[in-house]
Amino acid sequence: MPEVEKINPYRDDSRAKDEQVRSMFDAIAPAYDFMNRAMTAGLDRLWLRGLMREAAENTPSCIIDLATGTGDVAFALARRFPQATITGLDLSEGMLDKARAKAAGMAAARHISFVQGDCLATGLPADSADLVTIAYGVRNFADIAAGYREMLRILRPGGKLCVLELSTPSAAVPLALYRLYTRTLIPAAGRLMSHDARAYSYLPESIAAAPQRADMTRLMEEAGFCRASYRSFTFGACTLYIAYKA
């Protein structure tokens, strides 16, 4: 079991991890977009462009964006693939409410459906998607292997998986700066802006404990994916993982 599966958002809470994750994102939804920009100094936009370049290798007609949050990845996909049908799925209704509000009046969002659901058991049809994406969500899974098996199930043969996930730099100097930033500044800013004292302490803990790089691609292949690979961004602070269904 990856160590991150044992880390919960709220330490003294007896609820299952998925319930805690849902509550956490419901609580921080109002501040999420602002905090995401601020915490990454806008680099999340650069990382999203990397995901879009990889997604554009083919022309998918059916796309599933898991852990869609407030919809940024789904909206970017809709702009890149205007004829595609896109489903954005997330545990948190609070985050989905933000996504739906942003979609209102947005022409590019007319083919997006936002639905509440569990990434480990989506209820979506098997062999239905050409492309599955997920950004910053895998480390919140209570069972990462089960999550990947579900992604494999909903992909069509030959379909592609793109996973964007935060990670820790491997070089000494970037790692030292990263640890200072994530362990002190991010929790302080999170407490101030989101009014959830624990959520932005859970963030660096979950990043540090999550499988990274070769360990993550191994989990993908153990779940049944093939040709799993990764590409690091910004000294390793974010990693894009790619895999395919045979």
Describe this structure in words.
It is a single chain. α1 crosses α4 (93-103). The chain has helices at residues 17-40, 43-55, 72-80, 93-103, 144-154, 172-194, 199-209, 214-222; strands at 62-66, 85-90, 112-116, 129-135, 155-166, 226-233, 238-244. By secondary structure, the protein is of the alpha/beta class. The longest helix has 24 residues, at 17-40. A seven-stranded mixed sheet has the order 3-2-1-4-5-7-6, sandwiched between helices. It contains eight helices and seven strands.
Class derived from helix and strand content: alpha/beta
Query: If helices are DSSP runs of H or I spanning 4 or more residues, what is the number of helices?
Result: 8
- Looking across the biggest beta sheet, what order are the strands in? 3-2-1-4-5-7-6
> What order do the SSEs take from the amino end to the carboxyl end, as H and E?
HHEHEHEEHEHHHEE
Strand composition percent: 15-25%
Low confidence ranges: none
The shape is globular
Strand count: 7
**N-to-C terminal Cα separation, in Å?**
25 Å
Helix coverage percent = 40-55%
Mean pLDDT over all positions: 91
Main pleated-sheet profile: 7 strands, mixed
Over the alpha carbons, how many angstroms does the gyration radius reach?
A: 17 Å
